[in-house]
Amino acid sequence: MTQLTFLQKCNTPLIQVVFLGIVCLCCPGMFNALSGLGAGGSMSSNVALTDAANGALYGCFAIVGFFAGTFTNTIGVKYTLTIGSIGYALYSAAFWVYDRKQVSGFVVAAGAILGCCAGVFWSAQGSIMMSYPEEKNKGKYVAIFWALFNFGGILGSIIALALNLENQAGGVSTGTYTAFVVIMLVGVVFSLVIASPSKVVRPNGTRVAVAEASHWTAELKGVLLVWKEWRMIYLIPAFLASNWFYSYQFRINAVYFDASARALNDTMYWGLQIVGSLMIGVLLDYQRMTRRGRGLLALAILFLVVMGVWAGGFVFQLTFDNDFNTPIGWKDPGFGGPFVLYMLYGFTDSLYQSYMYWLMGAMSNDPSLLARYAGFYKATQSAGAAISFGIDAVNIPLKWECLICWLLVFVSFPLIAVVAHNVSETNEVPAENQINDDEGFTRSSINSNEKAHIEQTLSA
User: Fold this and answer.
1) I need a surface site. Which of 35, 114, 272, 329 has the fewest CB within 10 A?
2) pLDDT tens by residue, 355-387
3) Per-residue pLDDT tens for 52-104?
4) What would the pLDDT profile of 212-271 be if each residue is shown by its tens digit?
5) Alpha-carbon torsion, ordered 373, 357, 181, 167, to 10 deg
């Protein structure tokens, strides 16, 4: 096999997924930290402004996400990530401007722009994460990405805490926004080191399957026809549920705990996400079982854990209501149980979303198709988040909000099981059908069954 140069070593799936994780650490990871500060880190009286910005963000995200695969496949994953990451820096900069000049319109506009940018960003992210690794490593690589991504939330929380230890105001310091913008701009620059699929060399000498470039109208048709893919339709309840619970969980953190306990909860919430993704990633790549077998086993474990946590959460929710006005601190006797529950909310979130990415990755190896799947997933997810935040805004009883979250997740599992049961053992072509390129590497392609499925969908 040809000796790899330094550049080619950087273009291996593992290094590329690590690079992707760093970009997401700097951009959406820091965005998560900013959101976790409450009201975008500004004064609590500005919650309405932040809600308006988030409404614009998720609304645009949901619309653009459905068509993001066309954009990604037309200009490529590298430049899609770069364009998408700029939106995160702009959003943080808008809060910096508001902190100094109180220009509220810029914050809402930045939210809408970020929604559009995030839609294409996550399409490219999903394409890279699900198509670059070998099939036997897809679960582990999802876990590596998820760990790096969520470390951004932890890092951002630590930075905010360090810069505001002596700050007695209701909002964070201007320097906090400056730090966030700088880190996000680092992510923008780092996105330029992402390699296109055709340049990625796997350890076994193969390269990522690369479909022939399509005209943008054909790409748009391909995105629309994702709606005819029965597996994606079956997964819609799961996609809706995957971020639905954020509004409820973040509200519990704000209502039940005091400021110091909220900061601790926020850090551990993202920390347990790292643990959860690493655990399920190892299980999903366990090679002594068939891919279908480990997918169904992981799903069964996921069901038991998620149902147990939400059952405990509902019992806890019955102990207080919307008018709770005695926040609990981390030194108070009643802190331990709710603290563990909140950590487990983060743990189950990572299990659930990591499994969704693995399942979509098991459906295809084609980067173009996976870009459409990822865009569809994130668009549906954002639509669910927008609806859930709207429900939360009307101040319905928290016990009903908790029950809605629990039931939506419960309903999704039978449909996920049907899709997992139909997972094929591989989407790779047999060795005798692989083609060597001019540089001595093996060009891996999608198998005949997957090719027929894609062609049938596009010609429908």
Assistant:
1) 329
2) 999 999 999 888 888 888 998 999 999 999 888
3) 787 788 889 989 988 888 888 888 889 999 999 999 999 989 888 887 777 78
4) 555 667 666 777 778 888 999 999 999 999 989 988 888 888 788 877 777 788 888 989
5) 140
Q: Is residue 66 part of a domain?
A: yes
Residue 441 placed within a domain: yes
Q: How many CA atoms lie within 13 A of 156 on its CB side?
A: 33
**Contacts with 91 (C-beta within 8 Å, 6 or more apart), sequence order:** 31, 53, 57, 110, 111, 113, 114
Contact 70, 216 (CB under 8 A): yes
Domain range for 278 is: 6-458
- Measured distance CA(353)–CA(239) in Å, rounded: 9
pTM of the model: 0.84
Residue 344 lies in a domain: yes
Position 1 in a domain: no
123: CATH = 1.20.1250.20
Q: Which residues of 10-41 are buried (b: 16+ CB within 10 A; e: fewer)?
A: bbbbbebbbbbbbbbbbbbbbbbbbbbbbbbb
Largest CA distance in the chain: 69
Number of separate domains in the chain? 1
Contact 108, 56 (CB under 8 A): yes
For the residues of 272-323, what is the DSSP string, one character each? HHHHHHHHHHHHHT-TTS-HHHHHHHHHHHHHHHHHHHHHHHHHHHTT--TT
